[in-house]
Every structure is written in C-alpha cells, then in structure tokens.
Amino acid sequence: MHEKIATIEDVARHAGVSIATVSRALHKPDVVSQTTREKVQAAIATTGYTANVMARNLRLNRSGMILLLVPDIGNPFFSAILSGIEQGASKAGYNVLIGDTQNDPDREA
Asked: Could you tell me which residue ranges the HTH lacI-type domain spans (predicted)?
C-alpha cells in the first residue's frame, strides 16, 4: 500500500493558513511573519511535504530540461563536453536529456 504524498494543501491545513500563505512562506519569506513561517515549517516537517518540481514546472510552462543531440555518444570528445554541460546545467537547476543520433543526418534534423 502506498502512502499518500503530502501536498501544499496538506501543509496549509496543518498550519492553519491558506495555500497562498504557504507558497509565500516558501518563496517570499520576507513577506510572511516569523510566527507564520514557523507554523508552515512545522507543518512541512509533520506532513513530510517536499516540493514537486515537475508540477511547478508544468504550471509555469517550463520543462526544466535541455536536450542535447550528439552524433556519437561513445566518442570521448563528446563525452567530455557533455559532462561539462551537464554539470553547468545542474547548477542552474536544469536536467539534461541526451540523444545519440548515431551519425544519422536524418535523426539530427
């Protein structure tokens, strides 16, 4: 049996605040009182809530993904470049999806 994943609604209910207040406490804490932030943090700890990045990106119409196509992923030249790109993208909050075109111009179009 699967445990129910905690939602922002669950946090709001446990903290006794609105969903908008939970969102502000998480994303713009300077506009929320210290007492309210503490209630929200306690509710997060109680419910085990973690932000759903995929859902947030869908709502914001962002994928958070970068697609990289390379002609030959087995080529050490491309492997080194891909590693650097992936590290930089990760630091910027992006995930990298890599496609190997296998030197096929039709797949590269």
From this structure: 6-60
